[in-house]
Amino acid sequence: xxxxxxxxxxxxxxxxxxxxxxxxxxxxxxxxxxxxxxxxxxxxxxxxxxxxxxxxxxxxxxxxxxxxxxxxxxxxxxxxxxxxxxxxxxxxxxxxxxxxxxxxxxxxxxxxxxxxxxxxxxxxxxxxxxxxxxxxxxxxxxxxxxxxxxxxxxxxxxxxxxxxxxxxxxxxxxxxxxxxxxxxxxxxxxxxxxxxxxxxxxxxxxxxxxxxxxxxxxxxxxxxxxxxxxxxxxxxxxxxxxxxxxxxxxxxxxxxxxxxxxxxxxxxxxxxxxxxxxxxxxxxxxxxxxxxxxxxxxxxxxxxxxxxxxxxxxxxxxxxxxxxxxxxxxxxxxxxxxxxxxxxxxxxxxxxxxxxxxxxxxxxxxxxxxxxxxxxxxxxxxxxxxxxxxxxxxxxxxxxxxxxxxxxxxxxxxxxxxxxxxxxxxxxxxxxxxxxxxxxxxxxxxxxxxxxxxxxxxxxxxxxxxxxxxxxxxxxxxxxxxxxxxxxxxxxxxxxxxxxx
Length: 501
Ligand code: NAP
Ligand code: MG
Known about the structure:
Bound molecules: NADP nicotinamide-adenine-dinucleotide phosphate, magnesium ion
Largest sheet: 7 strands, mixed
Number of helices: 16
């Protein structure tokens, strides 16, 4: 077994420059404190590893004033796109240069292994940022020939212009903190918008460092502001503020619903990346040798704290026993430990609150008749650990099959020959991801077309890429992260009609 509590002796000087300190917010390019501070905890041991200001409604107001000033009177929105691109590419380089430091800080604040944080909070989002930087020079309107009967003698030149939507409010969770921050900030900045970002108060350090690096890269003061604090105060104030034009939110469906309702009062545009309960279907003809570890990664990747985690598994009765047995082995073989221990394969959950929530779900599954065939426990340790769990004998009416757990808990269901796997996959209020594991090409294509989900995978799960839009349908929200779609959602269309008679 790996060590369970993080040992900070080997942290780099760069990480120690960020951790174990009291930080400031970033408003109008200035560091701004507050009267109260929030402690940030290491989830491997509950120790305080620094603090951030508990921002207020007034902090949000100041940040919005700065962002509006930068939008309306600054250079960012009107800068030549290739210059914005150059600055964003410079920012990507700076993040990459500090990659090891940022990965360490993220491992300490979020409890995820260094390999995980380096890959998903540094390397992948840096690629996303570079992709978005390139999008800045590919913003195109259209030209068209017009001329209705009411002006037969006149001639016109007509076109559309795409303009930045304005000030964007980004509100993000704690599961992949720096990646979430970059997903929000990159398309907004590429489009020429200015930003107010609220990171989760549980994982704020890397977002604050991103703000500093943005200034260093040449992003003008006030273009990118960061307000730390509590969602119900700072987040809610952003959603209500008339000076914010668009909210880009990632988080729970419950809070997303609240935001959509409150934001409608000021007609804000919205991108809502919400919860999921993504199905994985294993057909009888699947290559089990590849499918079993693939499915295990689908649920246990990022400790199951992944919005598109494959948390409902449907297995054909012919291969059910073999798949279940393989999954139990996979779950039991995962080495739990502290995020900085290189032998760790899975760290703790992000907080004790999240650990309690996941354990409550496991308990509810047991009460409703599910069988815990792997894991299902907390470790006898102050860290927020939950052992990788497999629940067998589950059915559609159980909470563990319908509700998002956001932890390492897989509910396994059996299906019979002749059952409609598309209906099984669609049997959820959510529609974020879905996967099918099969060697039947036409079955796979039909599944891709018929499933109601933002992303459908075949013989894989959770593969994301900067060039592939990512978003949900149904209660998983609307709008996209990444790809051209993300940038387009930060632009509004203006039509121009010019009399050239
Ligand atoms: P959450 O409670 O919904 O919080 C998300 C963010 O919203 C946090 O910054 C939070 O601040 C803030 N917030 C809370 N109440 C608010 C309000 N009334 N107005 C404005 N902002 C408010 O979610 P979480 O527990 O942090 O994260 C887990 C959830 O995120 C899961 O349900 C998961 O599915 C979802 N998620 C979705 C995606 C996706 O792309 N679809 C990706 C990752 C996660 P506080 O931290 O202070 O509460
Ligand atoms: Mg929350």
